[in-house]
Every structure is written in C-alpha cells, then in structure tokens.
Specification:
The complex is a heterodimer of chains A (351) and B (219). Chain A is 36% helix and 27% strand. Chain A has 351 residues and is α/β, with parallel strands linked by helices. Chain A has a 6-stranded mixed beta sheet with strand order 6-7-8-3-9-10, with helices on both faces. In chain A, helix 4 (106-117) packs across helix 5 (122-135). The longest helix of chain A has 18 residues, at 181-198. Chain B has one domain: MetI-like (MetI-like fold, Orthogonal Bundle). Chain B is 81% helix and 0% strand. In chain B, helix 5 (90-115) crosses helix 7. The longest helix of chain B has 36 residues, at 8-43. Classes of the chains: A alpha/beta (351), B mainly alpha (219). The interface between A and B is medium-sized, with 30 and 21 residues.
Amino acid sequence: MIRIEHLHKTYPLERTARPAAGIPAAALSDINLHIRKGEIFGIIGRSGAGKSTLIRTLNMLERPSSGKISIEGEDITALDNNGLHLLRQRIGMIFQHFNLLNAKTAAANIDWPLKITGKYTQQERAARVTELLDLVGLSEHRDKYPAQLSGGQKQRVGIARALANTPHLLLCDEATSALDPETTQAILRLLLDINRKLGLTIVLITHEMQVIRNICDRVAVIEAGRIVEAGDVAEVFLHPQRAVTRSMVAESAPAIFSAETAVQPSALAGITQLRGLLVRLTYVGDITYQPILSSIAAATPALITILQGTIARIKDTPYGQLLVELRGEPADVAQVFATLDQHNIRHEVLA
Amino acid sequence: MDFSLIDWADIWQATWETLAMTGFSLLFTILLGLPLGILLFITGKRQLLEQRGIYRVLSLAVNVLRSVPFLILLIVMIPVTVILVGTSLGVQGAIPPLVLGTAPFFARLVENVLREIDRGVVEACQAMGASKRQIIFGALLPEALPGLIAATTVTAIALMSYAAMSGVIGGGGLGDLAIRFGYQRFQTEVMVTTVAVLVVLVQALQFSGDRLVQHFTRK
C-alpha cells in the first residue's frame, strides 16, 4: 500500500529558528516503512518527535527533502500539481482540532470534498452525504453548524468528510487527542469499524499508547525524527526495546513491568528474599484463557508463585504477562520451561 | 439658535448626496480593496501563494496611500478626478479620491480578517485536494464573511466622515452644507443639524453592520 524509502526532511534554518550549529535541523531522517493494505498502522512518539511531519509527507502537505514514497505503486514525490490534487482526493485525513468549516453545516462540510472533485451531480452528492451522515451516526445533526456540535460529533463530521471520496487510505493526525476518554473510545471504535467494513488502510499518529493498543495492528515508534522500533503491536507493547517505548508503554499500562523494574525489590510485591528463579511469562492469544499454569503445577513438583501480573487485550488479542517465582529441582524447572515452550509461552529468567 | 431658519429641503438633499457618495465609494472600495486584500493575504509569509516580492510592493503601496492625509489626497487627486469622471466637484467628483483613500485601508482590514482564520482549515482543504482557487472562494471567503462584513461597516463609516471632509474642496453632501452655511455664514443651527444627521447615519450603519455580522456568525 505505502512504501517509504530513505525519507529525509530538513527544514531551512530560518523556520526552526535554532541558533545552535550551522546545520539545518533534521525533522525526519532515513525513514523506511512499509504499510500494508487494510491494516491500521500507528506511529507513536513524543511531541516534536516528527510524527506530524511524517504523516503529512504521505499526502505531500510536507514535501520530503529526499527519499521516496509510493502509494499503491505510484511515486507521489514525483507528482505535479494536478496529480497531487487528484492523489489527495483519494486520501482522507482527519485532524486533532477537526478543522471543519465553521460557516458550513455538517452536511455541507461533508459535501465540500465531493464538490471539489467536480465529478458528481447535485443528486449524487446529496445521496452520498446522507449515506455518510448515517455511517458516522449523525443523521439528525445534518443541518447543525460545527459550533453546535460536541467534540466527538465534530470528529465524526471530520471522519465522514474524509471518507466522502471513498479513499483507500485514511490519515489520522492525533484524531482523538482533543477528546475526553469516553469519546476517544467511541471514535476509535468507529475508526476500527470503518477499517473493517470498508477495508480502508488507516495510518494514525498519536502520543498515547492506549490508542495504539486499542486499534492498531502494527506500530512504529519515532524519536528525534527516526523510527527506533517497529513491528506488531503485541510484540512492541510486550517487549519494548527502547527506553522511549518502555516509558510510553508504562504510562498506558503501569501494571506491565519491564525487565529493569522487575528486579527492584519494590516491584516484587513485598517479597524481599527470592527463594527461586524470578521469571517473566508472556503469552498472547487464545492460550491466555487456558489453564496452563495449573496443569504445569499438577505435572511437576516445582512451585510457582505469582508475584505480579496482567491479563488484558491488545486490539482483539488477549495477552497475559506474569511475574512468577519458580522453585524446584533443576530437572523440574527444566521441565516447566519445556512445557511453557510447548505452549508458546515466552519465559525470561530475570533473576 | 433658531432652527426655523433651516432650509430642510437643503438638509434632505445633502443627506441624500452624502449617502450617495458613501454608497458608490463603498461599492468601488470593495471592488478594489477586496481583491487587493486577498492578494495581500495569499502572497504573505507562509500563505497559499507566498510571493515575497509581490507582497512587499503591494504592502508598500498600501502603506504609502494610507499615510497621505486625506485632505491632501483630495487636492492632489483633482486632475485625475477630472479625467476619470469629468469634474472634481459634487458627488461625482468626491468618489475617486474617496475610493483611493479608503481602498487600501479596506484591503488591510481584509488581510487581517483572513489571517484570523485557522490555518488548519486551509490545511484540511489542501488535504482534500482543493485547488487554491477553491480554497479561497469556497472556504476562506465564506469562513471570513462575518469579519468581512465588520470590516465593511468600519470602512463605510470612515467613508462617511471622509465624504463630509470632501465638502472642503467642493464635494457635495452634509460636509459641504456644514462648511458653507454652518461655518462660513455662521449658521450654527445648520452645523448642529448636519452633525446630528451624521450621528444618526453612523449609528444606523453600525447597527445594521452589527446585525449582519450576528446573522452570519456561526460560532
């Protein structure tokens, strides 16, 4: 769907106003990403990391300094003005602050991108607007102005507007960051729903791991203009490699412990003296709901004490992560590990 | 003061002349100032058609015209006015200098109103694949409508007071009446009456402008 190769973006010095050093500030450096058709791809990073710039290069609101971006096989960095207009008409985008036209009603806001293309008759547009209002659940608010709508409703108008020209790709620029948690959930559900119903590829940027965890299939972590980590959400979430990823994971789900915090006595839930091995178990998928631990306990004389743990979901995938103390003869311990391996339960001895 | 000495037909006539001068000048001011204001805005820094050279030239021209005192402009313009409308006197003769004096002022107001519009709106339109023309006429101007109406009201009132000033060089209207009768013939009651009529006109303009702004405001 989207292929980004060696993407660089530097701003001329004047705009970033950085007095230090005579080199232009790099907003993005050497970005390489492949986004698959139909997936929800998240880009997470702290503010100023470059995620906003990155998503804007996907519809050329920001021109990259070098590198290549192709969308559905088309090199978009080579497009002329007209080609760019046509490309953008095929890509939807929603924004943190909605960016609706205040002088137009909800219906007229949705109609506007249809009008822009000049491809449809009045009747066709009216029918499409009604259909879209229905899709986002705003049928009874069609004649209201943005000022009369709540934040969540405004974002729904934004989504309907972005979908008007049946795009294959939807870009979400911090789409839920200005919304309260409940509304955020509703909007995320809507996005997921649209992704499934229409087979739409969604690229979103956010600073909240919660958003990634709720709807994304894959994620890339961006820091100081570079992708520092990328992969399946479950993998990145459960085994974050970089400090920045770990801290963002910790903010969204404090119960998940990283390798460092686990060995600190405070993290051991009051157990000061370890009598066996400290092991972290991670498992993803249906196995979460199977009685593996109890069958292990029944099969070996080894003792397992659960010190800390989480069972939750990433998107629709259940996962569990447990910190356990494992006591027993080396042979028994080895057998426990073997059984865990058999069930695809990842185990790491932390201490 | 003896208000029975006032020739009300004169006052009536002068009021109409003032309204005519203001109305026609306003029309031409908008025709000239609105495109100029839009041009100033879009060629400005980090805007749709950033063109520093054009912006600087336009901006300088606007500033120069705005710094010439209106009374001087009235006098300097006389030969040009004669070429344009055939006379430098009366209602017709007042319109060219009025337009030249207020169009740059209006253009600046338009530029400022457009700048107040959230950049996000422009970005959203760009992301939809709108052309520059579509963004300006389909999004920016409708979004700016209440602000543009407010700017027009301010301009109309400025025009009315300038129109009165044009009485000094033989323009028609209430200003002319005030100068010839009120000042030169010491008929204080004429002076008071013309000022009173102007106050009423300005109030009416401001009131209608405010109502229109309110009507088109969607916030």
